[in-house]
Amino acid sequence: MEELLLQKPGEKIILLGNEAIVRGALEEGVNFVSTYPGTPASEIGNTFFKIAPKAGVYFEFSTNEKVALEAGIGASFSGLKTLVAMKNFGLNVALDALFPFVYTGSKGPTVIIVADDPSCHSSAQSEENSRFIVEAAHIPVLEPADPQECKDFVKLGFQISERFNIPVIIRTTTRVAHQKMPVILGEIKTSKDKTQKGEFVKDVKRFVTLPPRVLEMKKELLDKIEKIREFSESLLKSAPTNQKIGIITSGISYLYVMEALGELNIDLPVLKLDFFYPLAEKKIKNFIKKLKRILVVEELEPYLEKEVARLAKEANCNLEIIGKELLPATGELRPEIVTQALAKFANKKLNIQYHPKLNIPVPKRSPQLCPGCPYWFVVSAIKKAVDVNKVIFGGEIGCYMLFGNSPVNLQDYLSCMGSSVGIAHGIKKATGQKLITFVGDSSFFHAGIPALINAVNNRSNPLVIILDNQTTAMTGHQPHPGAPVTPNGIKIENIVQACGVKNLKVIDPINQEEFVKTIKEFLEKPEVSVIISRRPCKFVVKK
């Protein structure tokens, strides 16, 4: 990724959407970057991790997304240009910090990248659509469609943030984040701009969210959003409406629409909404006022469709609005889905037939742990130590999610990061059944510590196995506070002891005899027990 720093303005370079985001931030002179790795946003942090020292940018992998945003807020309050990146579930974690940040506003321009994952390619918990959060938070959101827009919208986001003193979200999806295309580069701002130190200037009226001032802040925020709405109107290009039907879309769906129009050989007016919030309502009303029918093409829940229906009551009450009648509300869109929907909408015959269900038997293959993964030894020890039908097994977010697949089959519940221990405590209190729960090393630092303290404090007794492979393996082997590559070298066992856990052992799982014996012993303890299974991921072992 050195080429991100070496290429000259005006040149073209093939970039992932995530890499283009990095380039856009560099071109705007970003000073401070924080993130917690989460696919499909992981490459943003990975790239900054490699180039930050040479780029003159401060970068950190934070312990979780809330902490990453809080660190970014501190940098922004100190006047630095700040970028924070996370996936959609990370936004959930960060919400406590996000809502008041939008009230206080940003002093240093701040862009927050949020990557959604329609179809749950790397997201086990739910098919979350983060667009539902932004209106409640009253935070501006831009939706790029391709890597060029990823770069350009990051720059625009910083400019909006600086002009209106408000953080801005850039919402991507998997197909935008992991799409590649040639990107035209701009000039990277000088290192002098990027290495400057910030200064926090005390301003209680601005940075402290307490009543009654916080209510004044909300009114100021709503006024600010209306000014940004007017600004968005000036950016949005008008679409010609000399026909009776048209299309409204945004993000990656726009590319599918344009491909479908080409395949069907039809020309329809298309309104592409780069701003998801606040919407350019005047432009939308002007677009729909002479139309008879409109197709709204968007992934997942029909947020745009509902907004168009609301605006149509004023601009064109006879408008027929079509969306989820032809397009699915679950799973990401694909070109063939949009093409078929558009053909029906425009009464156009398809020249080719799509066959989504072929009668070809395909053997089912579930994801498996890597050959040589240290977790295989843990699985082996558990199956030697207990009757798996008489023990409950708690799941957690990480490579060990795959314990839920055959032939391992050691996962009876799975929710979110940090939840395995918290849910285990509730089950133990409710039932008293024997229970073993898993949590990874990075997940433990992310959100597992409070749940462990709670279990100890409220006298529960699950057996917690902390799977310490000394890296954040699932998202690309990023470091965490306990990883050997981290200078601090925080030892998990010291934290576990500080939480009040009496029954604790650190075991290399290759030592099967000791591991099996300890599982049997700890399962009978009346207090919380913890085994730290420490053996490095095979991909980070130094050769």
Commentary on this structure:
This protein is an alpha/beta fold. It folds into three domains: 3-235, Rossmann fold; 245-345, 3-Layer(aba) Sandwich (Rossmann fold); 375-534, 3-Layer(aba) Sandwich (Rossmann fold), CATH 3.40.50.970. The chain contains 20 helices and 18 strands. The strands form four sheets. It has a seven-stranded mixed beta sheet with strand order 3-2-4-5-7-6-11, sandwiched between helices. Helix 20 links the parallel strand 17 and strand 18 (529-534). Helix 17 packs parallel to helix 18. The radius of gyration is 26 Å and the shape is globular. The chain starts with a helix and ends in a 9-residue tail after the last strand. 47% of the residues are buried. The mean pLDDT is 92.
Describe, in short, the structure shown.
The protein is α/β, with parallel strands linked by helices. The chain has 20 helices and 18 strands. The chain starts with a helix and ends in a 9-residue tail after the last strand.
CATH hierarchy class name of the largest domain: Alpha Beta
Q: For the record, what is the CATH homologous superfamily label of the largest domain? A: Thiamin diphosphate (ThDP)-binding fold, Pyr/PP domains
Label the CATH architecture of the largest domain: 3-Layer(aba) Sandwich
Low-confidence stretches: none
Helices and strands in order, then pairings?
Elements: H1 3-6, E1 12-16, H2 17-27, E2 32-35, H3 42-55, E3 58-61, H4 65-77, E4 82-87, H5 88-104, E5 110-116, H6 131-137, E6 141-142, H7 147-164, E7 168-173, H8 174-177, E8 180-184, H9 191-194, H10 204-207, H11 213-235, E9 245-249, H12 252-264, E10 270-272, E11 275-277, H13 281-288, E12 293-297, H14 303-315, E13 320-322, H15 335-345, H16 375-385, E14 392-394, H17 419-431, E15 435-440, H18 441-457, E16 463-468, H19 492-498, E17 503-507, H20 512-523, E18 529-534
Parallel strand pairs: 2-3, 2-4, 4-5, 5-7, 6-7, 9-10, 9-12, 12-13, 14-15, 15-16, 16-18, 17-18
Antiparallel strand pairs: 1-8, 6-11
Helix pairs in contact: 2-3, 2-7, 4-5, 12-15, 13-14, 16-20, 17-18
